[in-house]
Design a protein that fits this description.
By secondary structure, this protein is α+β, with helices and mostly antiparallel strands. It contains 6 helices and 17 strands. Among the domains are: about 100 residues, Immunoglobulins (Immunoglobulin-like); about 80 residues, Immunoglobulins (Immunoglobulin-like, Sandwich); about 50 residues. InterPro entries: CD2/SLAM_rcpt (IPR015631), Ig-like_dom (IPR007110), Ig-like_dom_sf (IPR036179), Ig-like_fold (IPR013783), Orthoreo_P10 (IPR009854).
């Protein structure tokens, strides 16, 4: 029985403290400044009083301040507090009176002190299916957690941990954790998953809607095939052109073959028709009525000389060569010479 009463007192005290903390209207951090808002207009001719936990800390009546001073209050009646410490916690009450001393406004405020949150840090662990981020903070009492992905807040994520599936992650995704309480906000450094499990999933970049490496292999293979087809086409074109040239040369040779065969007998016959006359060979008989002794013999005519010469122009144009002339036609009979007159006999 003796132990029951102290235990009940501790539970009641804790409940009262928790209720008082939950009912705080305003919070401040140690060493800071805070203004308890009243927002009442036309206070120039009215009396105003501020109390802290029932004790008067400020009073203005008929333009006089006792206690307090001019800097402790704003134009709308808000109370200005500077250099706050834990002793400033509690209940504050503002009262406004008219000229007759009648209360026209009565309002209470609760003020609680809160420590500034420290900067959090983030660590992550990887598995085969997802990545778990954990926000680490020394004091989590009265703190709200917020997560951001690529500097964009993730709504609904207010726990100390964040789980993201590997399929939802991309290579450039970054994450941050923010902690917030009533007096301050702190954000962790930017973190990017770098474990092997995440890297395998993150490195799967897409190209045209398919896996990047797969598409690179397909494009490389297609490019190689196109290059091979181009080389084969060029080789076929070169072979075809060479074959066409060879066919043209063969056809040309076939066309020139008859002309070549016709020209060779002509030269051989011409060579036999104009042999050199060695010594001791029988000379041709001079036709009757020929030139007298001492004559150099008949001269070939211009017609005979022209016919004896080959005609390259006619051969170049594909005409058959002219038939070589016989000896009689090649060497026509000598021209008649005038008869020489002897001395006339003397007339008797």
């Amino acid at each position: 029985m003796a132990c029951t009463l102290p235990l009940a007192f501790l539970v009641l005290h804790g409940f009262i403290s928790l209720s008082a903390e939950d009912s705080c209207d305003n919070y401040f951090q140690p060493g800071g400044n805070f203004s308890i808002p009243l927002k009442y207009t036309d206070l120039s001719s009215k009396e105003i009083t501020w109390k802290h936990n029932g004790s008067v800390i400020f009073k203005r009546k008929n333009g006089k301040f006792k206690p307090g001073k001019t800097e402790d209050i704003l134009e709308d009646g808000s109370l200005q507090l500077n250099g706050l410490v834990s002793a400033n916690e509690g209940t504050y009450k503002a009262e406004v009176f008219n000229i007759d001393g009648k209360s026209i406004k009565d309002q209470s405020f609760s003020l609680c002190m809160k420590e500034k949150v420290s900067k959090p840090s983030v660590k992550f662990t990887c598995s085969d299916k997802d990545v778990t981020f954990t926000c680490i903070l020394t004091n989590t009492e009265g703190v709200t957690f917020k997560w951001s992905k690529n500097r964009q807040p993730l709504n609904g994520e207010k726990k100390t941990t964040l789980i993201i599936g590997l399929k939802q992650l991309k290579e450039l995704d970054t994450f941050t954790c923010s902690v917030v309480n009533e007096v301050s906000t702190e954000t962790s450094d930017i973190i990017k998953p770098t474990c092997k499990a995440v890297s395998k999933s993150i490195d799967r970049r897409l190209l045209f809607g398919f896996d990047f490496l797969t598409m690179v292999c397909i494009l490389a293979g297609g490019g190689g095939l196109v290059l091979l087809l181009i080389i084969i086409t060029l080789v076929c074109c070169c072979l075809s052109r060479r074959k066409s040239q060879m066919h043209f040369e063969e056809e040309r040779e076939l066309r020139l073959a008859p002309l070549t065969k016709t020209q060779h007998p002509y030269h051989s016959e011409g060579q036999t028709k104009h042999p050199s006359h060695p010594e001791g060979q029988k000379q041709r008989q001079r036709p009757p009525g020929g030139a007298p002794p001492g004559s150099t013999g008949p001269r070939p005519t211009a017609r005979a000389s022209n016919q004896a010469e080959p005609q390259p122009r006619a051969q170049a144009q594909g005409r058959p060569p002219q038939t070589p002339l016989d000896d009689d036609e090649e060497h026509p009979p000598p021209l008649p010479q005038p008869r020489k007159k002897g001395p006339h006999p003397p007339r008797h």
